[in-house]
Amino acid sequence: MSERDGYRHGVPCFGLGVFPDPDASASFYSELFGWETEDLMPADDLGSYHVCRLRGRDVAAIVSQHGAPAPPRAVWATLIWVDAANEAAAKAKAVGGEVIGEPFDSPGGGRQAVLADPAGAVFSVWEPRERRGAQLVNEPGAWSMSALYSPDPDGAKRFYGELFGWGTRSFDMGGAEMLMWTAPGYVGGEPQQPVPRDVVATMSPPTEDGDGPAPHWSVDSWVANVDEASAKVAERGGEVLTGPYDVPNTGLRQSAVVDPQGASLSLTQPPGAG
Q: Quick one: what percent of the chain has pLDDT higher than 90?
C-alpha cells in the first residue's frame, strides 16, 4: 500500500475514465473495486464528474463525455502531473505532438490539457490545484501503473524524453522485453517491487507482424484475486480479453478486460494477494 500527497513534474498521477453513461460506470467499478463515489457536479448540470475513493482517499475519477473533446468511445485515460498545463501543451506541440483539448480548468480541481503523441496515443496533463492526484496506489482496488502501446518505440522515446525528461530501461519477461519509462531521481512504487523505483510507466513492444492495437495509453489496477475479479467483469456485462495468466519473472497474475461500456484496462494480482 502507498499513500500519496502529490507527485512531481512528469509522473503519471491519476486514472480518469470517460464514459457515455458515467453513473452506470461508477456503479460498476464501485462493485468491482469497493469504491465510494461522489459526483462533484451540481444536480442541474448535464455532466458528471465522479471522484472515486477507497477508504476515503481519492483513487480515480469517472466523468461524462462532454467539455473537453470527447473520445470516440469509453476509455480510461492517464493524467500526468505537470508544473504548468499551458506550458506542457505548448511544448508537446513543439516536439511533434498534438493538442486535442486546449488547457481548461477541470471541475475535478486542477488545470488539464488533452494531448496526443506523434503516433496518436492520447493522454492528459494535470496541473494540480485542489486535487493532487491519486492518494492511494499499489493496493487492491487502486490504480498501479499505466502502459503505452506504440508502433513507433523510437519516436515515443524521443517525444516523452523531450516532453517529460523520461529515460528508459528494459525488463526481461521470460524472453519478451518490456520497456520501462523512468523519471530519474523519482522514488515511487513499492520497496519490494521487481523493477527499480524510478519507473513511472511501461511500454509494450509492437507486434512482429505490425497488426497490433491502435496507439493508446492503458491503465492497470490491482485486485486481491484476479480470477474472481475477471469473472465478475464478465458476469456484469464486460469481457475478459486475455488471462488470467502468470506474468513471467514478476510474481504477478494478470488479465486484460473490457468493461460493459467498452473501456479496456488490465487487472493485476500482486504477489501475496489472493
A: 77
